[in-house]
Amino acid sequence: MSVSGDGPVAVVTGGARRLGRHLCSTLAARGFDLVVLYRTAEADAQSLTAAIEARGRHARALPVDVALEADVASVFRDIRATEGRLDLLVNNVGNYNPQHVTKLDPTAWDATLAANLSGAFYCCYHALPFMSDNGNIINVGMAGLEGIRANVHGTDYYVSKTGLLVLTRALAAAHADRRIRVNMVSPGQLDNSIDLPPPDKIGRTVPLGRAGHLDDVTQAVEYLLDASYVTGVNIDISGGYRL
Hints:
By secondary structure, the chain is α/β, with parallel strands linked by helices. Helix content is 39%, strand content 18%.
């Protein structure tokens, strides 16, 4: 197990794969020590922390089901005891259920909201008491949240991320006296999205005519880390998707 280093500490939920993994690598390159939170992807999480440590930053991985408040409380007690500080929390978990709303049952609804919305709240609740003043929380949403519209596929996901935007703004206002900034980044159609249209058709829904890359998202995250006068905002990284 890694011991805590002397750099700022970032915690990333859903950090072992896909966007979360890329965010962890980017943050390590910026000088953060990492705590990678994962639910089932242990091998991916361990390979990621090994790669970060090989580049000279401290990293460790912890299993947690963010949908369970007791699990979240336990993991943040561990972080507080081991790292002793927290400078950045990225709530990256985004369980996506593409069912049509007419097929959506209460079990699926509850699971999506528990992971995507309640889980983010639990992490913020347990992180904020020991987060450094001038710290950051960045929540990961979905493109198009600023305009409420019908979304019959993945309705539970859309509802959970809309709620996360409301939570983002409330926390930004509530913790501004500590100079803790709370913002959101909202990707659209990424090149690893499970429902990505083919290249010859993506221009019908994405005005810039291409899928987003993981680097497009991390660019926005890095902007928010540097933008000391920005809080409570949501940045769509979508190429104009859902304008």
